[in-house]
Structure formats: C-alpha cells, structure tokens
Specification:
Structural class: mainly beta
Number of strands: 55
Strand content: 35-45%
Largest sheet: 5 strands, antiparallel
Oligomer: single chain
Radius of gyration: 27 Å
Length: 629
C-alpha cells in the first residue's frame, strides 16, 4: 500500500485537465476546391472536407493552410500549404500527411499549387522570394516555379526564362482546357507577368497582361475568363487560351480575389474585397449581389442548388445570389482570433468574447462579439461590424465594449440591446469594470487611466498594460512599461516601484494577495520574464518560479476564485501552467491544447477560459476525470 500513496498524491496535486473548444467559429476561409462531389476548404484552422455539398464539414488537420489543390481523379489525394510554407500531401483524405521536399529547395515558400487537367500526376507549384536584398543570401534562391510528374514525389525547376524579380512567383494559374498552358505574376512591375505553353519549359513575358490568379471556362463556348490581382486587379477574356483581351469590367470594385462560372448559363461570379459581382455578358458589365459579405477570398458555384459557396475572412457562407440571401455555414475551424474574454461577475456561465477579424484603418475594421450562457459550450453573435475588441462586464452584468487604436464612441450591451456611450478613448489597452459599482468602467490609455467619461485619473505612469481591482474594491493595481502603481480609491495612484510590468491579478478570495508579470531587457535587447507575488497588498513582492524559458513571453496570470495559492500562467507560445502553492512549483497543463497564441486567462466558477489565436478554450477544474474531445 505504501507504494500506491505517492501516486495518489501526484494525481491530486497534478490533475490531468482536458481542453475543449466550441468556437466561436468563422475564421478565414481562403480557398475552395472540388474533386467530383467532394469539396475541400482551406482555412486558417486547417483543411475541411464535405461530401454532402457543403452541408457538413469534417476536420482533416493541417492548421494554418491557405492553399489547396484536390486531385480531380481521386478525391482522397489532396495537396496543401500555408502561403509561404512547405508543401504537404495526403492520399487518404487527410487522415495522414507527408511533407513533399524531394527536389525542392530549402525554405520553399509556396504561393499556389495547380494540377494539370490532362494528367493528374503532373503538378506545378510556385514560390515567392524571401526578404528582398537580404544581405549574404540570394533572395530568390528558393523561389520560382517547380514541376512534378509523379504526383509530388519529386520536383524539378520549371523556371527557364524567368530571371530576377520574375522568379518571385506570387500568382500561378493553369488553363483548365489546355495542358501545359501556365501563367505567372511576379512582384513589382520589373518582375511582370509571363506565360508558358509547354509546361514551364520556356517562358515569355507578356506586354499586355495575363490572368495569373485564376481561369474559368464557359463549357458551352470554350471561352476562357481570368483574373489577376498582384500588380493590379484586371479581368481578361480569351476565345482560344492563347490571345487574351483585357476587359474594363464595368461595375466591379475592390481587389479581385476569386472567379467562378455557372456552366449551364455562362454567368460569371467575381469575389472581391468589396463583395460579390455577377456578369451575364462575358465580364463586360457587372452588377453587385445584394447583401454580400466583404473581404471575399473564394467563390464556388454549386450547380446542384444554383447557389454559391463563399469563403471570407469571417467564415463560409452559402448564397442564394438571386435573392441576396447569405447564410453562414458552421465550419468547426477553431481559427477565430479571440482577443479577449469577459465574464459576468454575477453568473460565471455568461461569457463574452471579442474577435479581431481585420483592421486596415479606423474606417475599415471588422470584429465580432459573441455571448455564451453555458460557460463556452455554445456561442451567439451579438455584434458584427466595426471592431470592438475591448470588453468589460460591470457589477450589474452590463457589457461595455469598444475598439483599440483610435478614438471612438464606446457601447453598452444591456438586456439584448446595444447603446452608444459618449466616451472618447484612444488606443485603449484594456477596459476594467469596478467589481461592486455598476457603471464604473476604467479605460487604460497611453496617457493614463480614464474613468468612464469623467476624465483622467491621477496616475504617475504612462503606457499602462494591465489593471486589476480587488473583488471588494479595496485596492487597485496598474502594471505599465513605466512602473507599477497602486491605489485604494482608483483615482489617486502611487508609484510603488519602477518595475516594467505587463500583467497583474488580484486573488478573488484574498485582497491582500496578488501576482504580477514583469520583464527586463538584456544588453542584447532580449526580454527576460519573471513572476512575483505579494501577500500584503503590494507593500512588498517576492519572486516566484518561472516555469517557462526566461525569454519566453508570459502573456497572462489568473488566480482561482476560492484559493489565493492556486494560480494559472500562460505564454504567448501556447503553454499554460498551474500552481497549487502560490507559484513556487508548477504543473504543465497544456495537455491536448494545440499550439496557439494565448492572449488571456479568465476563471469563472470551476471553468478556466483561454482567449487564443484559435478560438476560446475551456477546461473544468476536475482533478480526477479527464474529458474526451
């Protein structure tokens, strides 16, 4: 019996916790490919397969990909790559994968893969250049076009005639009706556009432009239509695939991304950053499809239902294009970048998440806010539009939301309705709600802390990174690049030391206990990370063990609700740790969590929530039972 006791103690002190995620879904959907009745979708979350026309999708692995080519003869053979990444192949529909490297240069940066329509064992892969003018290394050494005649097992260069910037292949297309007719677009006007009529054996520069991005065929007439977008968005048409005519494409706006055709009518559909457009006259005049989402990346016409499958930066949609109706398709992609989590202090099963979908300027951003009433088991969209990636929930249960980076009105979500607030904040690092005073919200700005719309609190530091408040409201902490500050009223802060602090967390069950994450710069400008603990309201701090590598960024710290000695720590590289003794020792709790960037930790009741680059993840604090994904 003595031999069993240490094992039992280990199980109790180092529980095996399982991580699960139920979204939110709707990450970037980059490319759709078909093989017979099978559809493949390349997303930031990996490759997904549908065998029922897009009604349901199964995860086939390879997260982070954006390029896919499906074998037209065998639907189980698929080639994928992340843009700028290595090539991979599956022969069993995505159950297993292998890297394709034979004959390819080291550091091959894939931009596109195409399969010869006359011989499915012949493939072409384009690669772009590395850092231009990188000292000591030829920037084009791993770039250019490569060809395989044995289904990707071996590769050979096919770039004869491409020189200098022309080797930096940014676009690659192939005429679906003419074996060996290839088109490429390089970087810069010096690189230009080239075409080959002999499978890449030789190349000729085009003076009028070619469809380097995509080509489709009207099967009724044999006419070809194509697009390019790297140097400039242009539309082309051709009757023979040799001579191409550039068309004005009247009525189209946005950067051209994807082209598809209705084979029964020849109607064309063009997806752009601005939406989806249709043309019934061979691409001369286009009309916008009503209610189309922005930032379209891929469009596929579904002949069986006369609808479109549309991939965007915010997920996959099915479009009844005639009625202007777009319905979101739930793909379990785990690819949404969840910037923040906020828990309702009255009910920890109510959780909010904010996503970062894209940000180009203060007038061109997109984000979503989701709400869960079952601790992350399911999610409902409560906002989609201009980004609102800073969240806080006050003592009444009202959600406050706003955007980072620019001054704008903030919003309050109460009883299912959003209402604007007359608060003008700029470059908000974090929103913090007072735990006992409804409506009292603080925003961390570079200049200090603003309390709602009531002005700047007296803070002797700048560039704050984080703030936390004791549950009873008796102590406030600010962690900043310029030092660490403390307050007892949240208005007048006192600088306690000049430590460069990133995060701070007060123990919910003990206002005297808190933890903070610090970093220093080495002489070589490398960050060195540490964690400290106070048991006397910040009067003094004691060093704690850092379970990660010293130069590995610690992204957040959180304390369990009922025990000030049970602490969680995360890294920006996807590691997560738990301590049962106030940070003296740690257990690695990553378990089945994928390699994702972790932005923040929130703990509500017995559930630990992570905001990550691949969705919101949860684990339940149950030391004796492992859940199954």
């Amino acid at each position: 019996m003595r031999a069993i006791v240490p094992v039992l103690l280990l199980l109790l002190s180092s529980p095996l916790l399982a991580w699960t995620t139920n979204g939110p879904h709707g990450g970037p959907a980059y490319e759709l490919e078909t093989s017979g009745s099978t559809i493949y979708l390349a997303t930031a979350g990996g490759l997904f397969r549908s065998d029922d026309g897009g009604a349901s999708w199964s995860d086939r692995g390879m997260p982070g990909i954006s390029v896919v080519a499906a074998d037209p003869v065998d639907a189980d053979v698929v080639y994928v790559a992340a843009r700028g990444g290595a090539l991979h192949k599956t022969t069993d529909g995505g159950r297993t994968w292998k890297a394709l490297t034979a004959g390819l240069p080291a550091g091959f940066r894939t931009t596109q893969i195409v399969i010869d329509p006359a011989d499915h064992n012949t493939l072409y892969a384009g690669a772009h250049c590395g850092l231009i003018f990188k000292i000591g290394v030829e920037w084009h050494e791993s770039a250019g076009l490569f060809k395989s005649t044995d289904a990707g097992e071996t590769w050979m260069p096919a770039s004869s005639g491409l020189q200098g910037f022309a080797l930096c292949v940014e676009e690659l297309s192939l005429d679906p009706s003419a074996s060996g007719h290839l088109f490429v677009t390089a970087i810069f006007s010096e690189g230009g556009q080239h075409f080959s009529t002999n499978g890449g054996a030789t190349w000729t520069r085009s003076s009028t432009g070619v469809p380097g991005s995509a080509i489709v065929i009207d099967p009724r007439t044999g006419f070809r239509y194509g697009i390019t977008n790297r140097l400039r968005s242009r539309f082309f048409s051709s009757t023979d695939g040799i001579n191409w005519t550039r068309t004005a494409a009247t009525g189209v706006s946005g950067v051209y991304q994807s082209l598809t055709v209705d084979p029964a009518t020849g109607r064309l559909f063009l997806g752009t950053d601005a939406g989806i457009f249709r043309s019934g006259d061979g691409g001369n005049v286009w009309a916008p499809i009503a209610n189309a989402p922005e930032h379209v990346r891929t469009v596929l016409y579904d002949s069986a239902t006369n609808t479109l499958l549309v991939g965007t930066l915010t997920g996959l949609f099915r479009a009844n294009w005639m009625a202007g109706q777009f319905t979101r398709i739930d793909v379990p992609d785990h690819a949404v970048s969840v910037q923040q989590l906020a828990l309702d202090p009255r009910d920890p099963s109510i959780v909010y998440t904010a996503t970062w979908d894209w940000f180009n300027s203060s007038t061109d951003s997109h984000g979503r806010v989701f709400r869960s009433t079952d601790a992350g088991g399911s999610w409902t969209t409560i906002h989609e539009g201009a980004m609102r990636n800073r969240l806080a929930v006050d003592a009444r249960g009202d959600l406050y939301a706003g955007a980072q980076f620019w001054a704008q009105n903030f919003y309050r979500f109460r009883d299912g309705t959003w209402e604007p607030l007359p608060w003008q904040f700029s470059d908000v690092r974090k929103l913090v709600a007072h735990p006992t005073r409804p409506g009292e919200v603080r925003a961390l700005e570079p200049s200090g802390v603003r309390v709602g719309g009531n002005g700047i609190a007296q803070v002797p530091i700048t560039n704050p990174n984080d703030m936390d408040i004791a549950r009873d409201g008796s102590v406030f902490y600010i962690a900043a690049d310029s030092g660490f500050a403390r307050s007892t009223d949240g208005i007048l802060f006192v600088l306690t030391d000049d430590a460069v602090a990133k995060r701070v967390a007060v123990a919910p069950s003990d206002a005297a206990t808190a933890y903070r994450i610090l970093y220093t710069l080495t002489p070589g400008q490398q960050q060195f990370w540490t964690i400290q603990r106070t048991a006397n309201r910040g009067s003094s701090w004691a060093a704690r063990t850092n379970p990660a590598a010293p130069n590995e960024e610690l992204s957040d710290v959180a304390v369990e609700p009922d025990d000030p000695s049970r602490v969680w720590l995360s890294t920006s590289t996807g590691r997560v740790f738990r301590s049962f003794d106030g940070g003296l020792t740690w257990t690695d709790e990553r378990d089945d969590l994928p390699a994702v960037a972790i932005y923040s930790i929130e703990i509500g009741g017995n559930v630990v929530h992570l905001a990550t680059s691949a969705g919101a993840w949860e684990t339940r604090l149950n030391p004796r039972r492992r859940a199954v994904r």
